[in-house]
Amino acid sequence: MIMIQIPEHIKGIIFDLxxxxxxxxxxxxxxxQLVCEPYGIExxxxxxxxxxxxxxxxxFEMFVKEYKHSVNxxxxxxxxxxxxxxxxxxxxxxxxxxxxxxANLGKRKIAVGSGGDRESVIATLQAIGHIKNLDSIVSADxxxxxxxxxxxxxxxxxxxxxxxxxxxxxxxxQLGFEAAISAGMKYININLYV
Length: 194
Prior knowledge:
Blueprint: E1 12-15, H1 25-36, H2 45-50, H3 56-66, H4 73-87, H5 95-104, E2 109-113, H6 118-128, E3 136-138, H7 151-159, E4 167-171, H8 174-182, E5 186-189
Parallel strand pairs: 1-2, 1-4, 2-3, 4-5
Helix pairs in contact: 1-4, 3-4
């Protein structure tokens, strides 16, 4: 496995959670399919990937509106989250990200900036065993504007008492890359290491 290199001047690493630090994307998609199945609705994988980083409830509200489904998107999203939460105990860390996190403990500050709700973020971090290793945890509940807006990553930097140019973001999704750029931070695409 190739070790991810972090520039010397970087004092803080901000990990996205789903698909970056935790291998949850397949579980999120499975939950989307399971919640839509009773309504005879297909949740397209391409749509799922395109909306990675946006909070679930917002995704489902957008989904039913864009695809003109006659179900309540908010309630569908809430059901999806309950299904996902039941799958969380099976989550594993992504090896390349976990290796980077462990290699930087005590050397740099470490945060998680996620588009997930606080309850799911905490449960996922507990499942992968890294909640105790973080200087900051920012979830979708704690910011008004979500990825691709920079608010999540800027709040992580603020909580670590670092300026944006002292932080680097690890991400797996386009909206996250855009959020990092908007925050004035460099980013690493974890997909190149998995």
